[in-house]
Input
Amino acid sequence: MPEVSDTQAFLDPDASREYLRSWKDNVDRVAAQAAAMSEQIERLRVRARDGNGLAEVTIDSAGVLVGLELTDRIRRFEPEVVARAVMSALRGARAEAADRAHDIAVETMGPDSFSARTTADRMRQVLEQPDYDQPPSEDEPDPKGH
Output
């Protein structure tokens, strides 16, 4: 984008028009990139399994559970174990979604984009926040101190 640095250049109508045209083109380009990023993130779906192969979850871009498949193996386990398997798969899916949202932001907006970094950081915060209403797994501490 051309610089309009001195008063004389700024007062030149042609230079001013060129500056404004260049500025508008830049704004339009960033808006198009942001729209593309938003569309790709909105379509994001992630599937993940727990480590024992009991459960597979599918989440949307907000981390909301949109699909759950349980294997026949769950019949051999207590309900609490199955619940932990589902939560483990959900945590894995959310972490993967955060990584993929980051990749989408960087690919569409560019690696030096403040918008990309802000979007990726916000997605990571939302997707990887602990789910305190669920019982902790045996290998993770209870956030409520129980």
